Amino acid sequence: MDTSLETIGQQATAAAYVLGQADTAIKNQALLAMADALLTHQDAILQANANDMAKAAENQVRQVMLDRLLLTEARITAMADGLRQVATLPDPIGEVVAGWRTPNNLDVKQVRVPLGVIGMIYEARPNVTVDAAALTLKAGNAVVLRGGKEAIETNIALSDTLRQALVQVGLPKDSVQLLHDTSHETANALMQLTAYLDVLIPRGSANFIKMVLKTATVPVIETGAGNCHIYVAEDAAIPEAIAIIINAKTQRPSVCNAMEKLVVNQAIAPTLLPQLAQALAPYNVTLKGDAQACEILPDIELATEADWGTEYNDLILAIKVVSDIDAAITHINRYNTKHSEAIITNNYQYSQQFTKQIDAAVVYVNASTRFTDGFEFGFGAEIGISTQKLHARGPMGLPALTSTKYIVNGDGQIRA
Amino acid sequence: MDTSLETIGQQATAAAYVLGQADTAIKNQALLAMADALLTHQDAILQANANDMAKAAENQVRQVMLDRLLLTEARITAMADGLRQVATLPDPIGEVVAGWRTPNNLDVKQVRVPLGVIGMIYEARPNVTVDAAALTLKAGNAVVLRGGKEAIETNIALSDTLRQALVQVGLPKDSVQLLHDTSHETANALMQLTAYLDVLIPRGSANFIKMVLKTATVPVIETGAGNCHIYVAEDAAIPEAIAIIINAKTQRPSVCNAMEKLVVNQAIAPTLLPQLAQALAPYNVTLKGDAQACEILPDIELATEADWGTEYNDLILAIKVVSDIDAAITHINRYNTKHSEAIITNNYQYSQQFTKQIDAAVVYVNASTRFTDGFEFGFGAEIGISTQKLHARGPMGLPALTSTKYIVNGDGQIRA
Does the keyword Oxidoreductase apply (chains A, B) (predicted)? Predict the structure, then answer.
């Protein structure tokens, strides 16, 4: 094993032990000190970011990546505000999740504890460095960060700043560690550092996450891709349906909870689709459709089989016409990524059937899929949106960064 | 990919969809029909087991393995009773785990749902076939079973019996599938069947589970090895300490919650150890110790570094003498498998410190480690004891075989 990773793992474990016992007040002090330090060291951080940006431009990195990489004063202020916000959240550690007395008089308590050491592996955005450090710290965990190589100078400047703030309040600086070596070999070794890492959380594109799942032996929380559908039943109120579709498709098309597919009942399609096409026109949404949709909207492109499984993350919407709700559910369960799905209906039975039979982290009746978000859900934070079924599903707040342990108080009980 | 595994995966997914919607009554009917069928088909099952036993004897399989493999009328009756017991347990599916209203009037409910398709991979014991089928079914999941090759005829007879019972009550027979091909290649392919399996639960020796963790790309729930310690503080009541140690070490030494190590404060060691050695004498426990323990008990063997990390699963106990509770906690956290640890003390501060600082699924004050068990905890069932921190920790009952989904009811909300 790589010696430096071995050292990083040992340091993280030692820091996690201290953080696991740290009281809420000191963790909050650390978060506020981190916020202050980001502003104090703003010039150095912006300089490091300018170096990364220059290198990226040299290497002809795509514009969308450059946008993600760029830091500004406003973005640093936003990061600092984020840290202060996390300081205001309730501390999940120590919560008694359940408790009972057994027939032989043992008092059993299930208590929330930190996970321990969390690995975060992500692509260009340097704000993940600060977000991840804040949330893992508040939940009493040490974190090992591995960001993209394009952002390495920025990430070093950010993590050094955060580590100095930790030392200021008397917490171990190794509560937050960043891999300075951004080689693939070291990333792969981190994904297999089972002796020290309790969990690995990848953030990035669908392909990136697939690669991590393939390589990692450390347990992974899969965050993710969203091929989100809205089904419009035959009884839907058309103005409401159109308002929700416009919102879900256009309000922020690049994110995972944006709508990608419209499934529409054949009884309402001839009325809905022309009105929808007209309403979407100002938003520059490219429409595609199956044969039936193309009959109603002759100007749109015929969707291919590949379309149904694709997350566009763009102003494209593919339309599938179905005979009934059963066909809608079958189609959605076949092609969705188990993220967020919605039905527009005023039919009670449909609403029940859809929410029960659709397999997804979040299922909506008469609302936009865009609400799948830790802040919208009221968690006050979000480490990602889990699309797996183990450990955490849907928007993940601080409790997703914790485990539990049982504490059993007895008075000499032995097993018969 | 292996075509037959592909087919098995598709069949399991289809069955899981039906089970996910099945009501409690029909799942319970299936469990009772399975219990009846085991008794009806007892002769065929015992014959299949006799064939496995004969082959195993030919292949000079060890006696302990033969004991695990053997079925008797009594063991089949016990399996049937187990199925009936699971039928009496509350159905976890549909439970509203949490629910709230957001500021914009969305009603959010977090509802318990099945995991989907569960892979179980295990060694010789054929009762796991029946236990796993019962628990996964009750929690609304389909299961794909892969038992040891020594038990293949027995497992086929058992799973065929269970599948017939499923058909009788109108549930899909593919709710329970057994891999008839027991090759390592097929087992490895099952561990990587991410397109169909939501989770993989291995049951078996520590080495077996390590191998599964290495090979699997499907998320694994690690069940586990137990290198369990009891720390006796300097103030402990000696008769209570001895009673707990005898119970934890000797009541069933082969299981994971049995005690493996005694850590004892140096102030009480000279009094405790001779009395303990005398009390343990009738139980044929081999004692080992560090240098200090060997000074007090000159007849015992000196423990090596390897001893401290070893789960003996046998009538062996290694003794470590420490200067204080901090040294005890450091030693235990270094060598334990994060399963079950206990302190014997009447000191309030020690009890608090030990339960907070020890990193383990279950931490006891003044009770035997042998209580770490789904039945003893009152779960009415146990699919295993998780020694990982993700998803489930400690004894796992039916809820460990579930996930949740969010159902969000709106009236036209769009995101601002």
Answer: yes
Ramachandran angles phi, psi of A230, nearest 5°: -120, 125
Residue A346: Cβ-neighbour burial (10 angstroms; 0-12, 13-18, 19+): middle
pLDDT tens digits along B180-194: 999 999 999 999 999
Residue A367 backbone phi and psi in degrees, to 5? -155, 160
For A339, the closest chain B residue by CA position comes to B405
The domain in which residue A140 lies consists of: 3-222+391-409
Count how many pairs of residues, chain A against chain B, have C-beta atoms within 8 Å.
195
Pick from B17, B355, B409: CB nearest A407: B355
The domain that holds A87 is classified in CATH as: 3.40.605.10
**Per-residue pLDDT tens over the stretch B154-165:** 999 999 999 999
- Please, which residues have CB within 8 angstroms of residue A105's CB and are 6 or more apart in sequence? A410, A411, A413
Residue B366 and residue B256 share a domain: yes
Chain A residues 370-399 within an 8 A CB cutoff of chain B: 370-372, 376-378, 388-391, 393-394
Cα four-point dihedral sign A377, A383, A387, A393: negative
Evaluate whether B190 touches B183 at the Cβ level (below 8 Å). Answer: no
Mean pLDDT, rounded, for B320-325:
98
Long-range contacts (CB closer than 8 Å, 24 or more residues apart) made by B70-79: B71/B45, B71/B46, B71/B126, B71/B154, B72/B46, B73/B42, B73/B46, B75/B127, B76/B38, B76/B39, B76/B42, B76/B45, B76/B46, B77/B39, B78/B127, B79/B38, B79/B127, B79/B130, B79/B131
ipTM exceeding 0.85? yes
Chain B stretch 164-203, residues whose beta carbon is closer than 8 A to a beta carbon of chain A:
194, 198-199
Predicted local confidence at residue A210, as pLDDT? 86
Task: Report the residue count for chain B.
Answer: 416
DSSP line for A391-409: S--EEE-GGGGEEEEEEEE
Cβ–Cβ below 8 Å for A415 and B116: no
Mean pLDDT of all residues in B186-209: 92
Q: Are B220 and A217 a contacting pair at CB < 8 A?
A: no
Nearest to B120 by CA among B187, B211, B52: B187
Q: β-pairing, B117-122 with B199-203?
A: parallel
Using the Cβ of A326 and the Cβ atoms of chain B, whether some distance falls under 8 Å is answered with no
Instruction: Using 50 as the pLDDT threshold, list the residues of chain A that sit under it.
Output: 1
* Residue B332 touches partner A, C-beta closer than 8 Å: no
Q: In this predicted model, what pLDDT tens digit does every residue of A161-191 receive, in sequence order? A: 999 999 999 999 999 999 999 999 999 999 9
Query: Chain B, 76-105: which have a CB under 8 Å from a chain A CB?
Result: 100, 102-103
Provide, as residue numbers in chain A, all residues whose Cβ is less than 8 Å from the Cβ of B220.
219
Average pLDDT over residues B68-74: 94
Give Cα A188 to chain centroid, integer Å: 21
Together in a domain, A218 and A74: yes
* Residue of B221, B385, B414 to mutate when probing chain A, most A C-beta within 10 A: B414
> Do residues A286 and A250 lie in contact, with contact meaning Cβ atoms separated by under 8 Å?
no
User: Is the pLDDT at B244 greater than 70, yes or no?
Assistant: yes
Does B37 lie in the same domain as B169? yes
pLDDT of residue A2: 52
Supply the CATH number for residue B283's domain. Answer: 3.40.309.10
Contacts of B295 (CB under 8 A, 6+ apart): none
Q: Given pLDDT bands bounded at 50, 70 and 90, which one contains residue B1?
A: very low
